[in-house]
Amino acid sequence: MVLMDGKKLANTIQEDIAKEVLELSQRGVTPSLAVILVGNDPASQTYVNMKAKACKKVGITSILYEMPANIAQKDLLGMIENLNNNNNLDGILIQLPLPAHINTDEILESVLPHKDVDGFHTQNSGKLHSGISGFVPATPLGIMSLLRHYNIDIKGKDVVIIGASNIVGKPLSALMLNAGATVSICHIHTKDIDSYTKRADIICVAVGKKNLLTKNMVKEGVTIVDIGINRLDNGKIVGDVDFENVSPLCAFITPVPGGVGPMTIVSLLQNTLKSAKARASRISLSL
Q1: At 189, is the secondary structure helix, strand, or coil?
Q2: Quick one: average pLDDT of 134-161?
Q3: Which of 156, 189, 205, 223 makes an SS bond possible with 252, Cβ 3.0 to 4.6 Å?
């Protein structure tokens, strides 16, 4: 059993990003990311702080806009419009979830596609499902980088994804399909999930329920990507997989924490750098 060390790989990728950021900055283009945080949800604040710290480490300018929880839809849209019009800004990230009174779909659609470093705009989603280059959501992008780093072949493999969110499950299924896998997506309405997981070569689980995937649900030699995050009463962080009992059966498995999480953050940095490089190209063409 091989642990897929996302933290170690992310640190290596960050070093490469920092070199490219420095090179771009010397050419007069400093990659920059705007982060909008609405309300004071503790988990969201933690994630935002982690992203800001990662940006600082590689030289990306990170600007945080903290908005009150009761902000009106039109005011949030107005702020995004201003950020869209800022030519020195490469990425706009809206920390989710947003308060219940906010129409999240409308907010995400208001971000210009070329600044949508989260990959949530339908234009980027459409490109992903069509196999066209665009911005890919950070978690699925990080997972594919991790699998590639460990030379895990996807082509022709049976892949099961548990969880069908727009943030992870659906875009990850498109990436896997584009890579030549046979993909099954399981969710809350799926009957007999075991019948899918037992024959899977690769299982990706992103539900947020501890011990969801147990040893009787997998075959020997499986590769498992655990995307779940669950905090136990004693403060310990665990994933969706019964790691202690499942891991001995695996060829490869991600730990939680230290697996997918660091890859998600570094993939966001990669998307921001990609946007900045496109801005630099536009500037060169205009000269």
Answers
A1: coil
A2: 98
A3: 223
Please tell me whether residues 110 and 171 are part of one structural domain: no
For the beta sheet containing 32-38, the strands, ordered from the edge strand earlier in sequence to the opposite edge, are: 61-67, 32-38, 91-94
The answer to whether residues 196 and 237 belong to one domain is: yes
CATH number (domain holding residue 42): 3.40.50.10860
With respect to residue 280, please indicate whether it lies within any of the assigned structural domains.
no
- Known active-site residue 236: no
Dihedral of the alpha carbons of 144, 145, 149, 151, in degrees to the nearest 10 = 20
Cis ω before 97 (30° cut-off from 0): yes
Active-site residue (options: 14, 90, 115, 118): 118
Question: How many structural domains compose the chain?
Answer: 2
| Catalytic residue check, 118 | yes
Last residue of a domain, one of 84, 115, 146: 115
Q: Report pTM.
A: 0.95
Between CA 9 and CA 134 the distance in angstroms is 23
Q: What element of type H or E holds 279?
A: helix 260-286
d(CA 61, CA 20) in angstroms, rounded, equals 14
User: Residues 41, 93: one domain?
Assistant: yes
**Active-site residue flag, 56:** no
Q: Which of 51, 115, 170, 274 is catalytic?
A: 51
Band (pLDDT 50/70/90 cuts) for residue 220 is very high
Domain of residue 98, residue span:
29-115
Phi, psi of 160, deg, nearest 5 = -115, 130
> CB atoms < 10 A from the CB of 276, how many?
26
